[in-house]
Specification:
- Two copies of one chain form a homodimer.
- With about 325 residues, the first copy, chain A, is of the alpha/beta class.
- The first copy, chain A, has one domain: HAD superfamily/HAD-like (Rossmann fold), CATH 3.40.50.1000.
- Helix content of chain A is about 40%, strand content about 15%.
- The first copy, chain A, has 13 helices and eight strands.
- Chain A has an eight-stranded mixed β-sheet with strand order 2-5-4-3-1-6-7-8, sandwiched between helices.
- In chain A, β4 and β5 form a beta hairpin.
- Chain A is globular and about 65 Å long.
- At the A-B interface, α9, β4, β5, α10 and α11 of A face α9, β4, β5, α10 and α11 of B.
Chain lengths: ~325, ~325
């Protein structure tokens, strides 16, 4: 079950597209105008003010202002399926004509017949095959284009929005607010790094090299006389749970001072951030409590399960961003 | 032999220290004042001017101005041994009291007796044991401190300088010049990423998250109630040869437009950079031609071997920075 969830996690991540700037220009002078006044918003402002004021006890030099954000469920929605998994399912249909054998092979046969239960009955192995069929055997450039094409065309079954319109406006404001105060913002997601990079720069203002995620191994090769990188059907790194502090160290090389997540997949990243000494640290959990404007789920959810995080939030002083209570709006207009 | 060299490469990388600012303030208005006037310097200036002038045919938007630099032999010296290997050898002596068994075990016995030939007679296996004995079984924080301690105390056998004083002043100027023109500068080195990060920010102006290098696997664990990352005796990634384009993609996620290297370990990185389409590209090879002020070596050297790069430089239009001819000075004063 846990490995299955890891693989699920690997399947998925944020979403928004190059051609479209969905980040709102706020019409007020409040950089966090989509946040309700209250303790969560105040805690954010107090932390940033304290850590950026020269001479303050909690001052953090700009070079150490490292802020890490989970993506799925933290910067955008993740229900009813991680969006990267929706991408993978759509890609199976796109690729089917090139794979006549799929008509007789599970999990592809069931997927193509729209029978999700049978397809996923194969558990971890079935998930692995779906991921690898859609995320390998292709050059990195071709994969980029595939992701961008999907983002411009696919729509979410519940909202009818493009997936790239389902980012969280309050979090986009938080990213901008941190950067305006000298913080360097990173995504640290269980989702595939190659799935996120084609669009995150435009949507979140986070350049590709500041995205840490799961990945497959790559092979440097030559195709029609041109050097290419081929995505191999072999996992390179799973950036989830204990993997998040590992990914942070391997990629960023510094311990964050600010971290936001939403599920138990972010527990170790939050712990790694907020148990460090020397500087003030800020940990935040986005709690999905709004069944009307978004979704409400935590301890019992297969997607974005949040159990340990809620239990231990008080111990570590992690702030809860309660979507229903703390956010004036969910998505950009 | 090749694997041995890969392991050698893994052992080593750049060097300079936190407490000491060795980057020279230039006293002229020429940002490349340590470069002799001539075709190499002119090619650099022409490229940067052309790619940063709005409206120019070769204009590159700031987000795509990615510049990658090898470290050993490109940003600092690497003779007579990669500096990270000198660090490893010194660490064997430091760690010996905790390892009484080394008195009877090769390659440690020979190393402790100063008999390098016998120590290295064990080939790849001996090298692997030296690396892992000094680069694993330790937390990432402890390793950082060890590197910094070594940098402040160790000196180079030929120059008597601290290793952190043997960076190349013309290259430091080039890094600054590129950044002043909106380029984001990265190190992409076969050396260990954890060996480079504690000091590169101060010396080269390159923050830790913009350093791509070789690494061991890490384990997230708890030590005396504190979360730690333990460096494991298992290679995670070798950032050399074909590994360099792979490391660039996994870490940076964009194809560079500017790359500098000095050895055949940089061949694929140069090729990956300069065969890309869409923008102008610049590839440069630092050629070690100055036996008086530094070292002179290329095709026949075990360290920093440069054979394919010289042979194919004209095909790919890679510029040669000839140290003797093109550099007014080698090290900062």
């Amino acid at each position: 079950m846990r490995n299955t969830m890891v693989l699920f996690a690997f399947l998925l991540a944020g979403c928004n597209l190059k051609e479209k700037q969905t980040v709102l220009e706020t019409s007020t002078n409040d950089p966090l105008s989509s946040w309700q006044e209250g303790p969560t918003k105040q805690a954010i402002i107090d932390f940033v003010t304290n850590t950026t004021k020269e001479g303050s006890v909690g001052f953090i030099p700009p070079a150490d202002r490292i802020a890490c954000f989970d993506n799925d469920g933290t910067l955008w929605s993740e229900q009813p399926l991680y969006f990267q998994f929706a991408f993978a399912l759509d890609q199976i249909k796109v690729l089917a004509p090139q794979h006549p054998e799929w008509k007789n092979e599970q999990p592809f046969k069931a997927l193509l017949e729209g029978d999700m239960n049978t397809a996923l009955a194969g558990g971890e192995k079935a998930l692995f095959e779906i991921v690898m069929a859609t995320h390998s055997g292709i050059t990195t450039e071709e994969f980029d284009n595939t992701v961008i094409d999907w983002m411009t065309t696919a729509t979410h079954p519940k909202t009818g929005k493009h997936y790239n319109e389902m980012i969280f406006q309050p979090m986009v404001e938080l990213l901008s607010y941190l950067r305006a105060n000298g913080y360097k913002t990173f995504i640290v997601s269980g989702g595939g790094v190659d799935f996120m990079r084609p669009w995150v720069e435009h949507v979140y203002g986070i350049p590709p090299d500041q995205v840490v995620g799961s990945s497959v191994k790559l092979k440097y090769d030559t195709l029609n006389g041109r050097p290419v990188l081929i995505k191999l059907p072999e996992i390179n790194f799973i950036d989830d749970k204990q993997g998040k502090p590992v990914g942070i160290h391997q990629h960023i090389g510094k311990r964050p001072v600010f971290t936001a997540g939403n599920s138990d997949g972010d527990y170790e990243m939050l712990q790694w951030t907020t148990t460090a000494t020397g500087y003030p640290r800020f940990g935040m959990i986005v709690h999905h409590t709004d069944s009307v404007r978004e979704w409400a789920y935590d301890r019992d959810s297969q997607i974005g399960r949040l159990e340990r995080g809620l239990k231990d939030a008080a111990i570590y002083n992690w702030k809860i961003a309660d979507m229903k209570r703390d956010w004036k709006k969910i998505y950009p207009d």
